[in-house]
Amino acid sequence: MFHTTSTLGALPWALLAVARLTNAACECGYSLNKTSDASHAVFTELLENDFLHTDAQSLELKNHGWQPQVYNVDKATARGSFGKGFELENIVTNPLKTSGWSGDAEHGGDAGLELWVRANPRNGLVSGAEVVTVRDDALLGSFRVGMKLSNSSGTCGAFFFFHNNTQEIDMEFLSHQFNQSQGAVNLVLQSPEAEARNWDASGTSGFRTKLLPFRPDNMFHEYRFDWTKERVAFYVDGKFLHEITDNVPQEGGGVFFNHWSNGDPSWSAGPPAADTVMTISYLKAYFNSTNTERSQNAYRQRCPTYDPSKVCAIPSQSTAPDASIGKTGAKTYFFSHEKDMTPGQTLYSSAAINFGVPSLSLAVPILVMFLSWSLM
Ligand SMILES: *[C@@H]1O[C@H](CO)[C@@H](O)[C@H](O)[C@H]1NC(C)=O
Ligand SMILES: *[C@@H]1O[C@H](CO)[C@@H](O)[C@H](O)[C@H]1NC(C)=O
Ligand SMILES: *[C@@H]1O[C@H](CO)[C@@H](O)[C@H](O)[C@H]1NC(C)=O
Ligand SMILES: *[C@@H]1O[C@H](CO)[C@@H](O)[C@H](O)[C@H]1NC(C)=O
Ligand SMILES: *[C@@H]1O[C@H](CO)[C@@H](O)[C@H](O)[C@H]1NC(C)=O
To answer: Which intervals hold domain GH16 (predicted)?
Structure first.
């Protein structure tokens, strides 16, 4: 794009310097609230997945930052009337047929990453699905998912951060808690206290069931948690729901999704009467890293001196990200769909789709020439 500069003799150096400034952003990270707000938090790392436009075999999900999990938990360990089997075949990408934000999905139904729970237990196990981020270095951050839950009673669908069993942040949806008018989400910070109660967190300060004024199996909604040192704040479609301040995790880990049933009437219930799906339309995570190569070296390279003007505020999703809301209801903001908003980030292969990024390559040289001349 700089081929025209060669005709300008001594100018190329100035051109490059200015082009960098006009062309790149977010070198110093991503913020919750604006950096000018009294209370804000800055995170240096980004992971974004647009599952409406992701087409991959389950094992290829690794190329998108996600590792499918395959393992069994026997009935005794699962503490239910069935064990749990996590299987590859229950993890299915189902992209939209076009690069737009609505319309038919490849395999019918809702577009997105599907996690299935099967109706008929086999060998005493209910077959379900689990995926986890390849990265396990997330420490503090804002974690957001566009998700539609199972419409069949008897499963648990979960979105969670995990370091270990006592440092864990959960948003868990039990489909038996949904009815015609309402739903619910269970917010949990696992703790040594829950461990002492044989992993029954429900009597601890780290547990709260919040009613939702809609059916989570009806539409996609955005579920989010903001994890800072002092608290974990939970949000739905950008609206604050609840916060927990005890046993806030202080160690790094990864992000998980799973969808399962073990027949325990006091939790997942089930198994479901029919095969049933939970669908994820996107995951967006902005976080700090426990990996010093990332948090020190890579960050210092792109942001040698902290400059708040090089921090990008993370936009809030304030409506349900669902295709039924207008033509573009499912269209949400991705830094990774913009030009040069992810400098130095670890990006996994993105969808093979051009998202109509405005052609800066034409605009920049003109602007740059103007600036360089006015400097002379
Ligand atoms: C962002 O601002 C809101 C509203 O003032 C506040 O409740 C929240 O704690 C702030 N978040 C952070 C991470 O500072
Ligand atoms: C995240 O890391 C950056 C760089 O070390 C630091 O400036 C920032 O305060 C950290 N964020 C939080 C919420 O601690
Ligand atoms: C439940 O979801 C499945 C899969 O998306 C769909 O085929 C079925 O029609 C839904 N059933 C009801 C009662 O909404
Ligand atoms: C979880 O990790 C923390 C910090 O490393 C440790 O203190 C705690 O004992 C661990 N809990 C379990 C159940 O392993
Ligand atoms: C619907 O479900 C909610 C949450 O599980 C519950 O509190 C409410 O009483 C239920 N309403 C009806 C009409 O069953």
So the answer is: 64-291
